[in-house]
């Protein structure tokens, strides 16, 4: 319970900070032209991320799972393992902001009596044609994730992803690899 409250407070602070930290000196982040949400749902393994405070407790095995419920809402279940091996799970909700492309979403992990006052950007800036990997960014370039359907990616795929990141004014060296449990 206390862990969930702490995660909620951290999420609030990050959401507020993210809304004020748009980098005005960089060009607008460009998302992919189309996302089929039915192909996108399912389990993704975190391959790399820009380190952030709301994932500090995650030592390995970070995943994100997306489901569409009967109301059409996108349910988000982020999980990882802490250093002592205990699981850490954060439940959230995603909503599509750009319904034309489905590539701009917002995610919230904070709910007060069913009200979600804070949302963070979740923009899909790179996506494998077969939905085997995805690159997530935010307009501020402060946050970023590389996700995959498998626990690792080939060097050639990582080079392709780093090229996407560079073209979007991200520095690939800002991303740290996530240790997955094989």
Describe this structure in words.
This protein has 182 residues and is an alpha+beta fold. It has a single domain, classed as Calycin beta-barrel core domain (Lipocalin). 20% of the residues lie in helices and 33% in strands. It has three helices and nine strands. Strands 1-2-3-4-5-6-7-8 form an eight-stranded antiparallel β-barrel. Strand 7 and strand 8 form a beta hairpin. The longest helix is centred in the N-terminal third of the chain and has 19 residues.
Question: What's the number of structural domains?
Answer: 1
Kindly state the percentage of residues in helix.
10-25%
CATH topology: Lipocalin
What separation lies between the terminal Cα atoms?
Answer: 29 Å
CATH C-level class: Mainly Beta
Strand content: 25-35%
Rg from C-alpha positions?
16 Å
Q: Shape, please? A: globular
How do the strands and helices of this protein lay out in sequence?
Elements: H1 2-20, H2 37-40, E1 42-49, E2 60-68, E3 74-81, E4 87-96, E5 104-108, E6 120-127, E7 133-137, E8 144-148, H3 155-167, E9 176-177
Antiparallel strand pairs: 1-2, 1-8, 1-9, 2-3, 3-4, 4-5, 5-6, 6-7, 7-8
Keywords:
182 residues, alpha+beta, Lipocalin, 9 strands, globular
Question: Summed up, what is this model?
Answer:
With 182 residues, the chain is α+β, with helices and mostly antiparallel strands. Helices cover 20% and strands 33% of the residues. The chain has a single domain, classed as Beta Barrel (Lipocalin), CATH 2.40.128.20.
């Amino acid at each position: 319970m206390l862990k969930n409250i702490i995660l909620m407070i951290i999420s609030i602070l990050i959401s507020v900070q993210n809304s004020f930290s748009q980098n005005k000196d960089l060009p607008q982040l460009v998302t992919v032209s189309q996302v089929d949400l039915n192909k996108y749902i399912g389990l993704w393994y975190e391959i790399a991320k820009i380190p952030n405070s709301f994932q500090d407790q995650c030592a390995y095995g970070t995943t994100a799972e997306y489901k569409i419920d009967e109301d059409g809402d996108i349910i988000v279940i982020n999980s990882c393992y802490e250093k002592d091996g205990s699981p850490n799970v954060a439940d959230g909700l995603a909503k599509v902001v750009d319904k034309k492309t489905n590539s701009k979403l917002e995610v919230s992990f904070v709910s007060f009596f069913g009200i979600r006052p804070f949302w963070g950007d979740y923009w899909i800036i790179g996506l494998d044609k077969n939905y085997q990997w995805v690159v997530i960014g935010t307009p501020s370039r402060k946050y970023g994730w590389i996700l995959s359907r498998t626990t690792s990616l080939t060097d050639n795929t990582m080079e392709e992803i780093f090229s996407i990141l560079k073209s979007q004014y991200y520095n690939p060296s800002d991303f740290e690899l996530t240790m997955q449990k094989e």
